[in-house]
């Protein structure tokens, strides 16, 4: 997983250019950790292909893998990505109608 300062927009967009990787990001946009095995990854491809897609997303800086014993989970680097590329994850999630936890309750009230 690269340092967030080394992550470029080109690398991120290259990673999500693949439809399966975009669907992975959209699934992870819910803000939860997801096990690397499970029905939520039933995209009709082999497990080895999913492993490849997870690796590409991690190397691009979009995700991190959390290891707890023998369990591997994947999560979006949401806070870091939102700070470096504001609105990017919301835009990617919106292409599938997935709302982020930050925007699920509607726009922030206006002050003034």
From TrEMBL:
Transmembrane segments: none
Single annotated GO MF: DNA binding
Sequence ranges assigned to domain HTH arsR-type in this UniProt record: 1-96
Keyword Magnesium: no
InterPro entries in UniProt: ArsR-like_HTH, HTH_ArsR_DNA-bd_dom, WH-like_DNA-bd_sf, WH_DNA-bd_sf
Keywords annotated in UniProt: DNA-binding
Protein name, as recorded: DNA-binding transcriptional regulator, ArsR family
